[in-house]
# Entry
Amino acid sequence: MTTAAGPRTHRALIAAATAAAALGLALTATGCAAVDKALDCVQTADSIADSVTDLQQAVRNAANDPTQTQESLTAIENDLESIGDKSDNADVNKAVDHLQAAVANVRTAIENGDETPDLSPVTDAAGELTKVCTP
# Structure
């Protein structure tokens, strides 16, 4: 025999289970989104590290091909734009800002005739970005 409270309790349990399942799906989706963002950050940081290596090589060979340095700087800037657009992490954004400033300083130094600009701020900032992007 079912009491009046029985069907209501059953409906309440079903509603609670449905709500819990929906919450679980939302948390899973949020977790996946966070993992996707972290993966994007790591992949882009890796690409930036490759571009910094290219920049170092381009600066060493600037006498042979001065356009290589500009191309390397542009590649880093494009990668930074990609990270900046995707990230809402304050540490990542701070690292991106530092690297953007370092790249701008190298570009300015080259435009002012410095054939061997100091790249250590670029490599330091790229290392900082890699560190904050590592999950």
Q: What stands out?
A: The CA atoms of residues 55 and 72 lie 5 Å apart. The chain has one domain: 34-133.
